[in-house]
From TrEMBL:
Organism: Methanopyrus kandleri
Name the record gives this protein: Methylase
UniProt KW keywords: Methyltransferase, Transferase
InterPro entries, A to Z: Alpha/beta_knot_MTases (IPR029028), NA-bd_OB-fold (IPR012340), Put_MeTrfase-C9orf114-like (IPR003750), tRNA_m1G_MTases_N (IPR029026)
A biological-process GO annotation: methylation
Pfam families, per the entry: Methyltrn_RNA_3
Length: 255
């Protein structure tokens, strides 16, 4: 599992809400391509919690299977341009009817006398004897198609990411005892780094603030690495840096 952390100011410079949504969608694609499971949004002293909430909504909307979105999300002004985000097409984003034996995401609509009723993207609700808590997403296996029945299950492949908002970067760093890397154009050239262990968490800045500005002390505690040496543009956007960084680490077998 690999986690990533972004500041509250991420994309806050973007004034066009449609382009903002598209950039978030591009970021979500990168996270899914490289199997990121945890996303942290940390306070940086520049961005606002309001922007962090907006980011969280769009990232969570994109991660949610299409057939559950109307159940999980209410009408929200922050999601009005979610349609411009490119489809994630992760393994849990099923586009076919439920098949016996497969694992799917579901949404608990309500409890029943003998268990609960779950929406799994079929033309009818699935029954289960498990008393799930209503109005929550659950991961289930299709036990039978007719009647449609499900049971709790654990996914055996990449199953999306979770998003958490935290007040400061230190809250993220305390979650991991090792395997933390800070990314910065002022870091050590990645071609000169000798990696000794898998990477657990990558910390990114934004166009508004670098990680070293948020907490200069991280340079003394964690590796600070430049994954885009000799960059040919003035600014590498965060979503571009994420793609590049994760691609390098994936190639090296470190995530």
């Amino acid at each position: 599992m690999v986690a990533v952390a972004f500041p509250w100011s991420l994309f806050s410079e973007e004034t066009d809400p449609k382009i903002y949504a598209y950039r978030v969608g591009t970021l979500a694609r990168a996270l899914a391509i490289y199997r990121v499971e945890e996303v942290y949004l940390y306070g940086d002293g520049v961005g606002t919690r309001r922007n962090a909430e907006r980011l969280r909504k769009l990232l969570e909307y994109q991660e949610c299977p299409q057939y559950l979105r109307k159940r999980v999300f209410r009408l929200d002004r922050d999601l009005r341009y979610a349609g411009v985000m490119p489809p994630l097409r992760a393994p849990h984003h099923k586009v076919h009817s439920p098949k016996e034996g497969e694992v799917r995401e579901g949404y608990v609509v309500r409890r029943s006398r003998n268990g609960a009723l779950v929406d799994v993207g079929a033309d009818r609700l699935a029954r289960t004897r498990w008393r799930f808590k209503p109005h929550e997403r659950v991961t289930v296996r299709i036990v039978s198609e007719d009647p449609l029945e499900v049971e709790p299950a654990e996914p055996e492949e990449y199953w999306g990411y979770r998003v958490r908002i935290v007040n400061e970067l230190n809250e993220v760093l305390r979650e991991f005892k090792e395997g933390i890397i800070v990314t910065s154009r002022y870091g050590e050239d990645v071609r000169e780094v000798e990696f000794k262990s898998p990477v657990k968490c990558l910390v990114f800045g934004s166009s508004e603030v670098s990680v070293l500005d948020v907490d200069p002390g991280v340079r003394d505690e964690y590796p600070v690495i430049n994954f885009v040496p000799n960059q040919g543009v003035q600014v590498v956007r965060t979503e571009e840096a994420v793609h590049t960084t994760l691609a390098v680490l994936n190639y090296l077998g470190l995530i």
